[in-house]
Amino acid sequence: MRILIATAGSRGDVAPYTGLGAALAAAGHEVTLATTDAFAPLAQGAGLGFRRLPADPRGHGRGGSGRELMRTAAAFVTELGRGFADAVAEGTDLLLLSATTAPLGWHLTEATGTPSLGVYLQPAAATGDFPPVITAMRSLGRAGNRAAGRFALRMADRVFAPAVTELRRDLGLPPLSAVAMRRRRERENWPVLHGFSTALVPRPADWRPGLEVAGTFWPHVGPDEHLPGAVEDFLRAGPRPVLVGFGSMANGEGERLSEIAVQALRRAGLRGILQSGAAGLAADGDDVLTIGDTPHALLMPRLAAAVHHAGAGTAAAALRAGIPSVPVPVMADQPFWAARLAAIGAACEPVPFSGLSAGRLAEALARVVRQQSYSRAAATAAAHLAGEDGAARVVKAVEPLAHR
């Protein structure tokens, strides 16, 4: 079966689907990843086909006010919607849609009859268990959380509305609002398999049928991939170091963050590895190493702890490696994942990005590295994750569709 996985956003919104795509390909399917140009090498490295989606994710890694984020998101989605049908509709038997692309992909399903499944990296449906994950708000109680979740979905529909209007016109479909299409899919119990672990988020009991937690979708790592020689040399040269990285966040703040990180590591008496990322972290010294893109699956099991922005993928990778975290969330769903790490005891309380200082980071590092309760909680979570296989769950869900 010809399967197309459509996703867009930052690297963390794309990389997990490379492992999912590789698992589907190993099951005998022809798999293509539709995403933005910047991530074509990720698709190709996993042995997947690539199809370009017409948007540029660069410049979407900074925080800001709610209104600013809404404007940024609307501009990105509108750009994404233009040409979306051409990118994903031709020669496809099944669409797998991320939370970012589903509100567009639903209309392609209507126009072409191509079946679709959701493969989300975050819990998006309203629930009483927690408030909407992108708002960083505290729990409002079960009724309040559900109301806030429904409101967040309405705001998302507003973001997608212009793109949906254009897309339906291009597809020759009658007008239908983004909110009306979402409600239609909910009434149909449109299936969504969520690519995160129940160790962090058990399936809410008040979710509708069709919404399931599958387990984490891991980025593809080839069997021949290994750590660079310089990294191996550094790891062997002393005690386990701490990773510091902010992924696709904090553009232009590398100098400040690097200084904070190095000072904090030295105050805590720890060696460190800085992962440059979008911020451009960099430092020199016998006790610190700067690296570029390096698979977390290969590096994290060799570490003492990780300081990170608490993106869904990085948070899960630290748990999988059984190491504690110091979460420093920046925006969007990151405060949610940071709070979940802390709730299960595998991380200290989140350190707000705006309040990050060398002293505060040193204190947090010393605590998570030297208090064994954090490592024990991370190891317990690692054992839980080892019993899950998100990609296999998706492969199984796809099988009945292949024989239609």
Defining key terms:
single chain, 404 residues, alpha/beta, Rossmann fold, 2 domains, 7-stranded parallel beta sheet, 5-stranded parallel beta sheet, 16 helices, 12 strands
Your description of this structure?
With 404 residues, this protein is an alpha/beta fold. The protein contains 16 helices and twelve strands. The strands form two sheets. Strands 3-2-1-4-5-6-7 form a seven-stranded parallel β-sheet, sandwiched between helices. Strands 10-9-8-11-12 form a five-stranded parallel β-sheet, with helices on both faces. α12 packs across α15. The longest helix is centred in the middle third of the chain and has 31 residues, at 141-171. It is globular, with a radius of gyration of 21 Å.
Overall average pLDDT: 92
Structural class based on helices, strands and sheet pairing: alpha/beta
| Corresponding CATH superfamily of the largest domain | Glycogen Phosphorylase B
Using the coordinates shown, work out and report the CATH topology of the largest domain: Rossmann fold
How many angstroms does the end-to-end distance come to? 10 Å
How many domain regions? 2
* Beta-strand content bin: 5-15%
Helix proportion of residues, in percent?
40-55%
- Largest β sheet strand count, sense and barrel closure: 7 strands, parallel
Strand order of the largest sheet: 3-2-1-4-5-6-7
Rg of Cα set: 21 Å
Poorly predicted regions are 59-65
